[in-house]
What does this fold into?
Amino acid sequence: MSIIAVGSMAFDAIETPFGKVDRIIGGAATYISYAASNFVTPIRAVSIVGNDFPESEMNELKRRGVSLEGIEVVKDQKSFFWSGRYHLDMNTRDTLVTDLNVMANFNPVIPESYQGSDFLMLGNTLPSLQSSVIRQLKKRPKLIVLDTMNFWIESMPAELRETLSMVDVLMVNDSEARQLTGEFSIVKAARKILQMGPSHLIVKKGEHGALLFHENHVFFAPALPLEDVFDPTGAGDTFAGGFLGYLAKTRDISFENMKTAIIMGSAMASFCVEKFGPERLKEINQQDIDQRVQQFVELVQFDIDLV
Amino acid sequence: MSIIAVGSMAFDAIETPFGKVDRIIGGAATYISYAASNFVTPIRAVSIVGNDFPESEMNELKRRGVSLEGIEVVKDQKSFFWSGRYHLDMNTRDTLVTDLNVMANFNPVIPESYQGSDFLMLGNTLPSLQSSVIRQLKKRPKLIVLDTMNFWIESMPAELRETLSMVDVLMVNDSEARQLTGEFSIVKAARKILQMGPSHLIVKKGEHGALLFHENHVFFAPALPLEDVFDPTGAGDTFAGGFLGYLAKTRDISFENMKTAIIMGSAMASFCVEKFGPERLKEINQQDIDQRVQQFVELVQFDIDLV
It folds into this structure.
């Protein structure tokens, strides 16, 4: 089972109430790859970087079973750079700097060796680039998952709606689901989104967990209550990587299995926020993941005995 | 098994994005009683009302197994009146009017017939009145549950700390838990509160569910995703009533059973918010409750099969 992961590979400068880092590795494709490669390989990355993206990071990804053939390296430009400051609640943040650099000319080309992949994760980027990736695939993947953000919902609604019509799972946060539909109620928003193309909707609510909608079914996965959320950057992409990684490993895209996959995604995200950047994701092993998932089981399991 | 429910019985005027009502029945003791009486009787109410509290409401409570002996009726005054307006997110509200009326002289006296009760629910009121109720009980109940609010945390910290040292379960919302401890992290706040007296802490997060802390254990119960939260007034008290009602019915105050009790409380609260005031709580029957609880089971249940 193989997963194509499309998205940025970047540098981030992050300020949280717990500290500050100047220039660390970030980007959607990076986080998705680090998370998903715990479950299956190869993860086939599609991205673009400049001449400043560290060789050591590329080697680390490769070592973990991430194919780099779909990563374009632009010799005379710099990598995408984002800088942001989180508020105390960690659910909101201000963007301080966005230097697109190489991302301004991102035009993903799917290598021949990536054809026939089973899963496709479209990280947040231009909706027209996301649909272009789908069109380049000769055989439709078993499952296509889409992430997007407020900026595209506002500035490119038509392109986004077209892309939406081509995917199976939309993954957004609660405010994006509201913005996309004009509905304040997440249940009503979900109903509308499930008529736009995706058969499944995942609404991410940060420290308040995530909801999965499909037909008339809904599933809720909590976030693990943590002492400190150190840095939420990349948590959404890590969640996506864990979710798709588990589905690929189990070769089962039923609603029932997606529930467990969301718990896996939540577990991976709970590691991600414990340190700056993808640092914590590089430290954990299978035993850590199993123990963390067990904590999720204990967190929500109860015996019902109607009396 | 019997429950003493201490708290206001009042009139509320409520404005939500869905409508407005001028003067409907409200109050903590009212909601607790309507919820808990689905599980056990008698519910022994302790409250104070004026000459304007409707006889019909008293009769309805009585019919459901609520003892009224502990309710003081003041002939020449009016009942407590509260008026508030909810914001669109329904988690925040502005208080427009607070007319204490009879509540200004509330000095609960526990009738002899209430002695020997197994459970005590101390609805939100002056901390010194809450501790006075505990002192009046000749035999300590199996479980004492305390609700409080920002106003008391700020204005009467010493009295509140004394009351806290006398109870088993504190039930507050997330912002109150933060305010009480000065900790932003709910996990850290919980650790501090569990050193103040209560052996259990329930943190209510409205539409984001509730957390139960005990020693090193934590349990999370989601709120049911609803199309519309029509009116959240009384949801917290209804939750408390369902929680205690279930514990009393099952005669089991273990952590494991409290998990299920929190699901029961959440189910009762999910009915409460569907209509203005306690209206919806008067309509439901055992079958409605069973069906709603089943929805909670489906909402969070997943099969874990570590692969």
